[in-house]
Amino acid sequence: MFVKIFLFVCIWVIGCYGKRGKRIDIYSQSGGSDIAQLKLSTAEGGAFAAPPHVMFNALPSSSSYRWTVYTDVQGNYVLPYIITGNFDDEELAIIQSAMKAIENNTCLRFQKRKNEKDYLDLQNERNQGCYTTVGRQSGKNVVMLEANALATCVEHDIVVSAIL
């Protein structure tokens, strides 16, 4: 009996305090992947060699969907955000680190949302994987970063990719 109780406690402790779930492969999510499409089209002879129905994860400089609505005094583009997903402290630190890496290498700046109409909403829902829309849509722009005991997108490189 003691052995059964001991094993139950061990499994419970590992489940509650173990590392996040298996890293989600962003190249093979159900429903397809714009990253896989871009990789395929590049392999076939360049980024513009894909059929016209393929949506890439980039916007032309003239696009009205670029995040150029909000700027700071230095002329950087501000992306207002909120985090409504249930992330633990380690996951939040990874998200913040990814945002900081983007800020250090681009003209994008992340700022907690005050009352801006357009904003990023970082969410975490089971069985949703990692995804976001391409560019700025009107209103809430969901950035889905699944993180649980079975699977996670909250790895530095995946968060950077999802946010960009």
From TrEMBL:
GO biological process: proteolysis
Domain of life: Eukaryota
The keyword Signal is annotated on this UniProt entry: yes
SUPFAM superfamilies recorded: Metalloproteases ('zincins'), catalytic domain
GO-annotated molecular function: metalloendopeptidase activity
Entry keyword annotation includes Signal: yes
Keywords, in A-Z order: Signal
Leader peptide range in chain numbering: 1-18
Chain ranges of the Peptidase M12A domain: 57-164
Database matches in InterPro entries: MetalloPept_cat_dom_sf, Peptidase_M12A
Protein name: Peptidase M12A domain-containing protein
Source organism of the structure: Panagrolaimus davidi
